[in-house]
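Service request form, structural biology core

Requester: graduate student, group of Dr. S.
Request type: structure prediction, single chain
Budget code: on file
Notes: please return the result as structure tokens.

Sequence provided:
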Amino acid sequence: MTSTDYLLPLLPFGSAAYTIVRWLKRPGDAVSAGEPLLVVVNDRMEAALPATSIGTLDRILAAEGAAVAAGAPVATIAAYAAANVNNMPDVAQSTVRISPVAQRMVHTEKIDITVLQGTGVSGRMLSLDLTRAP
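Core staff response, request fulfilled:
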């Protein structure tokens, strides 16, 4: 397995300074691309940010309550060595926005949102988009 840094993406609204509110996964937990990994807040919004690869959360580099800038590494993910993992797009580099209901659906139903297009405002992924998933 190879470890990669999880870099805090730049959110579309508010400042690039974030506070980590809560980690949704713990070191050793399995993660999937698109699955909510942590919750951050800035001066304008709170967002659950998705994991960018399939693997295991290896280490948390920034604790809950820490102030972190966009682009900073906040965790490492040990990626599974599988052929299909290398072909998955990097979710953190895009501006994937997803509604809370859709986040729960992604997590419980294991839907790969990297192949879907959001139809909400500014491309936000909605639960309706997930019901249309192949």
